[in-house]
Amino acid sequence: MVQSQTGADGLGSIPALLERNVAQFGTSPAYREKEFGIWQSWSWADTAKEIEALALGLINLGVNEGDFIAVIGRNRPYLYWSMVAAQSVGAIPVPLYHDANAEEMAYVLGHCGARFVIVADQEQVDKVIEVQDQLHQFEHLIYLDARGLRKYDHSHLHEFSHVQNQGRAAYDEFIEDLKSRQAKLTHDSTCVMLYTSGTTGKPKGVVLSNRNVIETARSSSEFDGLRQNDEILAYLPMAWVGDFIFSIGQAYWTGFCVNCPESTETMMTDLREIGPTYYFAPPRVFETQLTSVMIRMEDAGKLKKRMFDYYMAHARKVGPDILDANKVSAWDRWKYFLGDLFVYGPLKNTLGLSRVRVGYTAGEAIGPEIFDFYRSLGINLKQLYGQTEATVFITAHPDGQVRSDTVGVPSPGVEIRIADNGEVFYRSPGVFVEYYKNPESTADTKDSEGWVATGDAGFIEDGSGHLRIIDRAKDVGKMESGAMFAPKYVENKLKFYPDILEAVLFGNGKDRCVAFINIDLTAIGNWAERNNIAYASYQELAGHPRVLDTIQEHVEVVNRSVAEDPMLSGCQVHRFVILHKELDADDGEMTRTRKVRRRIVEEKFADIIGALYDGSPKVSTVTEVTYEDGRKGSISATLELRDAAVVPVTQKVAAE
Prior knowledge:
The protein is of the alpha/beta class. The chain has four domains: about 1-280, 3-Layer(aba) Sandwich (Rossmann fold); about 280-380, no CATH class; about 385-475, Luciferase, domain 3, CATH 2.30.38; about 475-655, 2-Layer Sandwich (GMP Synthetase, Chain A, domain 3), CATH 3.30.300.30.
């Protein structure tokens, strides 16, 4: 009976896993962080001492079992320790997005009723202080970096190291209480509460138990053969379930090392220095890396460019087969070896991916061209499909069965079924406990038998058992002709081009599709510099005739590709516009995880959509924007609307 409560071998909580790790590999590195250009390291034994001191300090401050402790900041060992220390004292950690504005933070802090908040620096302190009048349960704020905070009122403001020191001083007084609280933790205790990104409505607090996190970490680690000597780079938002399962769940289950970069700006340099063996990135990161590669090759000499194009063409032909140990001729292997020597190897080293043994992408669909590019280099990149409510894993690609058009097979312990309307349902040990203070949404999402509605439309292939996701169920519709409308399929093809940062397709219920395009300022700006084209702003560059011509070429190539799919050929882009501003989370147009809020975009830019459909050659518009300091303003622009050539479907059928 006890084993079912606490888990196999008594490992029913993250603090219990920490204790095991200290006993089994206490001197091995658990965390590294780069600060002031130097990597610092903490072993598992060091980590346990840091967490214990903080946990005792939290008890000293008055943290009760069941309290919520918010954690806000970029990826730092101290903040990961904060979440485990919170669990150790029977409290519930609630990580928040560090780039969220004060009002967004106020909602989450107020909704969960956090009495304690642990933050990284002055910026986060200021945000919490700005909204503290709205937070009736808030009592204490703990900060990590003291810079700029000397003259603040410290009656409820505490330095992280001071809390630890007070905990060490009170060791004899509180250690038995701490041990008692840890002993109460079971598989059914709450491990963490994570807030959804909220593509529609307010974010919901997803309650995950120790069972959810530990069982998912165990099965997924075994699935990919993760080892204690693996290395990961923790750079994704700590509030995102993916970072939590990789940097805490799997890290504590396997005992591998979590490496924290110095800053967002140094992330790529730090990635190269660490050379992770286990790597996860959302599609946007892979797209950005590919854009930087293509920009560099445009600047390269003719010989280098010809060599790159020649060997990359060969890599696309045989690279994935070599990676999957399929049959490839000796001559092709020799050419690939030369390509690895001159192109693929140096390129992987530049990207920091030379040592990757297992790589994943998820969060949204990745363009097949982008996915195939990385696998052709010999990087074992796979796709997984998951949700916060599933503790990440629903499906994943097994080694040797990796495909760009599917998201793999059900992860260990996961059952999947497809409803009559095409919506994907699952149940597993990772299924969340509830939405906090929201029984109605819990009941709408999870039925009495534990089946969870994903909100995504898809189907399971006969024979292979692989799941194919078409799009968000709410976004899939029908054209006026009755043809299927699935915007993400086309958007991902457009985003393969380094020039295109974001694309949003419209057409549900219409006779044709139109699209918004955001250009990639880095890629287009580099092109402008090479061609001696002066520009003063994103808006000016977005409206340049040559930029419009280039994007039109991309759209028309994508149309020809889309026309080849009989199910989705009606989704070709008839007209498009390059928006005068980037879609931005601060303006409510995207979530903090960079997912487009389609309904908001559709409402906000209704005048532009109307002009695209009524055939207008231009449209004048005024858009409200939010500046970095939180002030509101507006920008006005006159945008050129372009027609794009489409492939008549009837013509294509006749040709076949």
